[in-house]
Amino acid sequence: MDDITENVAIDAWVKAFSRSRAQANAPHEADAELIELSGAPGQLLAITIDTVAEEIEAGLYSDPYTMGWVTAMASLSDLAAVGAEPLGVVVSASVPAGCDPALVEGIGRGIEDACRSLGVHVLGGDSNATPAISLTGCAVGLVPEDEVITRRGLAVGDALFLTGPCGTGNALGLARLGGLPNEFYPEARYRPSARLAAGRNLRGRATACMDTSDGVLATLDQLMRLNGHGFEIPCDWSRLIDASVLAFCDETGTPAWMMLAGPHGEFELAFTVAACDEEDLSLVAGDWPTRPIRIGTVQERPAITLVLGSGRRADIDMAPLRNLLDTAGGDFTRYLREFKELGSAWKLDEQS
Amino acid sequence: MDDITENVAIDAWVKAFSRSRAQANAPHEADAELIELSGAPGQLLAITIDTVAEEIEAGLYSDPYTMGWVTAMASLSDLAAVGAEPLGVVVSASVPAGCDPALVEGIGRGIEDACRSLGVHVLGGDSNATPAISLTGCAVGLVPEDEVITRRGLAVGDALFLTGPCGTGNALGLARLGGLPNEFYPEARYRPSARLAAGRNLRGRATACMDTSDGVLATLDQLMRLNGHGFEIPCDWSRLIDASVLAFCDETGTPAWMMLAGPHGEFELAFTVAACDEEDLSLVAGDWPTRPIRIGTVQERPAITLVLGSGRRADIDMAPLRNLLDTAGGDFTRYLREFKELGSAWKLDEQS
Questions:
Q1: Looking at this predicted complex, what is its ipTM?
Q2: Which residues of chain A neighbour B58 with C-beta distances below 8 Å?
């Protein structure tokens, strides 16, 4: 865990705080915090907080609607990953004093549309005047204690799934950081949805689950570090990556692996189920808005092993890529260059 | 309500969002949002979110410990005002990339000490790198549905109380904005505490309650607007204002009324009880860390009426003072000048 600078930074915060005896999860081990509820035996309160500011500062989102949409979805996605039923969302919105009213209006519409698409409501919030835009969402929900899903619990031989194809977050990120015109990957195409229905169905079924908000490979890397086992994944981009994202890769000559290895994800769930439960899963998944995609298997060895078409097996080390945002110190040109160098060394191009 | 620009700004946000049928409070009417809990009949979930950024930007807090302390207390105080029992706090901390580790450490200690002083725990959070410091706390708790306290419900003749003397927030604010050296009002003296024990005891007793985080007179002004009735308050600064704050006023020649009329408050509760319940209140208040102070009475007429020593009665109009932060557009010199002009017209000096 300590090879990842973000984990170390989180631990520095965690160390400052004493732990509640009512808390059901350990640090890092669930997408949302889980608390025993006196007065509601058998239920856990799930709560999570998430700030959208860096993405705006970096220029990934310029449409206020996207900013609002992602703020709501980011926290609802954490509820999905633990299998919780949302009670609602509270939002703290900080925007510059005297800003265009269209900014506030657009952020509000984005939040509301995201919530409404999932039958969730904004309960209230706070607003502040600050030099830069910063939006914080906090979602709260309930989950039955004996069916709660965490990031820990997978076993060797479990099947690894995504709730849907990924890569839209990194396509948007790369298009914007690379200075490509909006039409190469329109911001309005990035409307990732929290997988609440899937999370509900995965209660008592998934052996581990985490959302892909930090990118698919960073998510799998974190699950690997938490569980001590890795994944074997047939390297078939057309299964793993969204079709519009693959088209973007073709059009711009971008290697497909970057869509999974980059840090700007979306809100699919990466989850594991015992092999014997796979058939059961395909039955319950009938109601999901997306088809779950089986992408691999849990292996004993703590490594992410991509199996290429040639039969070659490539262990990919995500640590230097995950740490690069810190290493590069906000220099996106350097970030992109070193990111490409690190991933190119994996020699996955034969597949793309 | 619409005479106050902040209320109008909040309504603009509220209008953007559809309302949950499970929500027990209307907009503006409670310090925390109140949600029915399926699975816990008779209990409401209380949740609130609050960002500390403007105060840091304006230079009110320069010690990271204060920033953390206030972040935790601000959201816990909202739980106190509805009578809720905290389940915990989640925090989103945004600090500049590569900042002095002492900043993170100080913020963390401030949050932890504030929580620990009230037997509450931090459950988790989020951290981000942003150009300016911004700290968001979200507190969550439970309150029995039939005893919940809101800002509405007071009746003519009810007794008006504070949980303790006020003014520390405005003393700090004025000392910092006025450029006074720290020793005139040391930042470390500003350690306001959420009145959770009082809030618990006021369940089923208080007819209305709101914390003084926006200053005492703004709080009373808001309670007046929400309830349609005002307050008659004998103008005795030594009952209303903290002794250290009165000493600061003496030393610096600052009019005492500014300590109640300014916008930077603390976390006492302003609450009303039916006159017949006053004796009962003095019994339960034995366990509070402060003595409740009876400061006035609810009057029919929607006005805040200060009764001076001379017997003169002064109706004070808080609307222009509450709106001044917007009117002055971040120009603190102008703000302070116009603030003094507006309040001086009340001619309360004979009392100070």
A1: 0.95
A2: none
